Amino acid sequence: SVSSIVPESCLLIVVGLLVGGLIKGVGEKPPILKSDIFFLFLLPPIILDAGYFLPLRPFTENLGTILIFAVVGTLWNAFFLGGLMYAVCQLGGPGLNHIGLLANLLFGSIISAVDPVAVLAVFEEIHINELLHILVFGESLLNDAVTVVLYHLFEEFASFEQVTILDIILGFLSFFVVSLGGVLVGVIYGVIAAFTSRFTSHIRVIEPLFVFLYSYMAYLSAELFHLSGIMALIAAGVVMRPYVEANISHKSHTTIKYFLKMWSSVSETLIFIFLGVSTVAGHHYWNWTFVISTLFFCLIARVLGVLVLTWFINKFRIVKLTPKDQFIIAYGGLRGAIAFSLGYLLDYKHFGMRDMFLTAIITVIFFTVFVQGMTIRPLVDLLAVKKKQETKRSINEEIHTQFLDHLLTGIEDICGHYGHHHWKDKLNRFNKKYVKKCLIAGERSKEPQLIAFYHKMEMKQAIELVESGGIGKIPSAVSTVSIQNINPQTLPLERVLPALSKDKEEEIRKILRTNLQKTRQRLRSYNRHTLVADPYEEAWNQMLLRRQKARQLEQKVMNNYLTVPAHRVDSPTMSRARIGSDPLAYEPKEDSENLPIITIDPASPQSPESVDLMSEEPKGCSGLPPSPEEDEEGLVMRVKEPSSPGTDDVFTPGPSDSPSSQRMLRCLSDPGPRPEPEEGEPFIPKGQ
């Protein structure tokens, strides 16, 4: 019941305070969290766990926002806080006058960085949505480079007699060296770890060892050259994970997952307990003015920095950060053990006010962890901030995600705008073409992403069935890859449940591979200066205009006709059908020897329905007075002239497209009211 209200980190600090008080009460000296132990043994497991299981897609999609908060926001906090604290020291009386500008800037750089350990401890308990979590947590990971640079920079400047412009320029350039150098070291060790895992198929037991070994070597190598060890660990974890998981067995994957979680939890517990113990055991110098000003200006700097940077970021973001999001980002800027350890590393020789700095740092840590950490959950519920939705990924979601990626990449190509989708696609193609072949063993290097994801889901479902006791429902051969991961032995000859043959399964994979992965080819970018004219465009435009005019004319005739009410009679087609059903009712005149006779066979292909109505012109419907010949002949069938070659039957206007032909057609289809023939009387009278 207590842990649902108070975060676990707060409870651990309280435990540390009690343990420290007990040790001091019995007359012993409590142990202090030394910086070497913290940076070499306690911090790396937490950062490796965060980097190895980093949600890569939301991290890369929000990388610009994270970098702005981590770099610009941390610089703003450090210099704003350091400058104001220098002003407070100058106005604060005789106890603070001796603290110079460099010492205050160093203190500002220590206290300004958001702590990843504290953020992880609090944000994982409140289950905030993925966007806010990755923004705050990503900022806490990437601001390490800024903190390391500023810390070492001001520490070095404190020993100088005079700081020149060249020193400041070199200090600015050292930021890029520290950050990019740390990333480069991590990438190198990540590639080495992935390449090593390719050859461990016969020694599965030591596969997890390579992951931990190369990650720790990346961290130590970066710290050895004063580069960012946190950036190196994150880069190593992100780079090695997809290739290592494709090579190692499922048991090794489970070992890595649970060992990292356990290791990071133990480190986090020890860090917070030692914070409480060190608070009791350390030497403190309390100055009300300095401590209260530090706490107040920390909060002000964080709020102002988030508001200004978010106003600028929202100009370029598609999904804007709302005021609620900004409040959570500002309120979630927690400080933790990294600031305490950096303060503990200060040398008394150059910084005689180290005890006062440590007291202020511990006060800020306690305030952010206890007050902000305990109240952020009720505030999230009060503001109705979107929570994280625990949903399982499906094949449907994976297909649509890949489809949207390809679609957005194609849109960027057509527009000639090379955004992050374009470069992401380039990187994926380079990865599939070259990197996977070198770092992944066997056929898995050529396996499409969708099928690999399906195998992963299949394996997860099988494990859940085993854990739930439904092992009898599992197929004897789940899939080739899954069987190899569980037990690398030869497949049984008889496959019980899957009825597909080996050739059929390979054919299905080939279809998926060819249709799902090669949807985009290299296309020319859109440029209005290099458009080629379409030779058929003018002809198509004229044909479309003719069609439009014909439709307008037909609609006009239809409107005119609909204004006259008419009695419904049989259409000519129905009339001829009646003639076919009763041919004796129609007797041609004796003197009409040359008159063509209509022979109608309802069962033959030449049925009345196939007669071309546009070639029939009964008398009186053409708009002209009937000639004597036509009067004698009655109904005449005329042969339709074939269209000349090269003309369009649909769009070329013929004689039937004229207004008179349109009126004739209307007259033919519905000739208007006529007296009904009496029963027994032929449909066409004999005297006509």
From TrEMBL:
This is Sodium/hydrogen exchanger. Belongs to the monovalent cation:proton antiporter 1 (CPA1) transporter (TC 2.A.36) family. One of its GO terms (cellular component) is basolateral plasma membrane. It is a multi-pass membrane protein. GO terms for molecular function: calmodulin binding; potassium:proton antiporter activity; sodium:proton antiporter activity. Residues 477-573 form the Sodium/hydrogen exchanger regulatory region domain. Residues 502-529 form a coiled coil. Its main location: membrane. The keyword Mitochondrion does not apply. Residues 584-688 are annotated as: Disordered. Residues 6-380 form the Cation/H+ exchanger transmembrane domain. It is found in: Basolateral cell membrane. InterPro entries: Cation/H_exchanger_CPA1, Cation/H_exchanger_TM, NaH_exchanger, NHE-1-like, NHE_CaM-bd. The chain crosses the membrane at residues 6-25, 37-54, 66-89, 101-122, 134-154, 166-196, 216-239, 260-282, 288-314, 326-345, 357-380. It catalyses: Li(+)(in) + Na(+)(out) = Li(+)(out) + Na(+)(in); Na(+)(in) + H(+)(out) = Na(+)(out) + H(+)(in); Li(+)(out) + H(+)(in) = Li(+)(in) + H(+)(out). One of its GO terms (biological process) is regulation of intracellular pH. Keywords: Antiport, Calmodulin-binding, Cell membrane, Coiled coil, Glycoprotein, Ion transport, Lipoprotein, Membrane, Palmitate, Phosphoprotein, Sodium, Sodium transport, Transmembrane, Transmembrane helix, Transport, Ubl conjugation.
